[in-house]
Design goal:
about 260 residues, alpha/beta, 8-stranded mixed sheet, globular
């Protein structure tokens, strides 16, 4: 059997698969509606930051509401796309760990970025971004539910599921400076070819490093799993349903004695 073919960020195949993922995603209208409801609470002069902006889907949404938008992105390929597609945003080469916004952030979004950060660094990364918030600011962290089809696939091949609540619990337990709220919105992937289904599933599997799996994953076993669990040959459709978890962090108001 042959070794699983893995995507690399700099590969053209990764960019094409990512575009397929966005085109096949059913979460976007629900996430967009949720985020627009949050954005309407802030003035146009507020500072918004899209942490890990990728292809700019949420950057464009932020630009509908705000004049000052930072799109923070480590990939030069995606930064070039952001510069072309989101000319109203300031595109920043950086990460959650390296970028310091020029002033307090009113609305920050970390959408599906934690897949690219080791789990044990999630809490510190999120807290670092939360500490950039203005007094009335909000940080929104989005990740798929741990029971999603892609998480079940990871577990099947011997890797841990991604679990937002468990990953952020150290922040919630150890830092008393923030209030937390957890929401969820529905999502799904719907594909119309086995090729597209394989591309999206491969992206999900590559969210875990090769050494995160307890046993080698072969290309043949991966394709077989997708055919059996994520693709329906009879209907010519594939994909899976899931929820998107949204954790909102806001600064806890200071006690009256501290405000005086």
């Amino acid at each position: 059997m042959s070794e699983l073919r893995r995507f690399r960020w700099e590969d053209p195949d990764y960019e094409r698969a990512f575009a397929t993922l966005l085109a096949s995603s059913g979460e976007r209208p629900h996430v967009h509606a949720y985020l627009r409801g949050i954005c309407r609470r802030y003035p146009a002069e507020a500072l918004a930051v899209d942490w890990g902006a990728g292809g700019g889907d949420l950057t464009r949404l932020l630009l509908e509401h705000f004049r000052h938008v930072l799109a923070v992105e480590p990939s030069p390929v995606f930064r070039a796309r952001l510069a072309a597609d989101c000319p109203g945003a300031e595109v920043v080469a950086g990460t959650l760990g390296t970028t310091v916004p020029p002033r307090p952030v009113d609305i920050g979004i970390i959408s599906h970025v934690l897949y690219h950060i080791p789990d044990h660094k999630w809490a510190a990364s999120v807290l670092r971004a939360a500490r950039q918030l203005s007094d009335d600011g909000v940080l929104l962290v989005l990740l798929k539910d741990p029971d999603s089809g892609c998480n079940r696939m990871l577990e099947h091949f011997g890797a841990a599921r991604f679990n937002l609540v468990e990953g952020l619990w150290p922040v919630m337990a150890m830092d008393g400076g923030f209030n937390y709220a957890l929401d969820r919105v529905p999502g799904s992937f719907v594909t119309h070819s086995l090729e597209d289904t394989l591309a999206i599933a491969r992206l999900a599997l590559c969210d875990r490093d090769q050494d995160a799996f307890s046993r080698p994953v072969s290309e043949e076993d991966f394709v077989d799993y997708v055919r059996r669990h994520l693709w329906d040959e009879t209907s010519g459709r594939g994909g899976w349903h899931y929820d998107v978890l949204i954790c909102a962090l806001r600064r806890r108001p200071a006690p009256p004695a501290e405000r005086a």
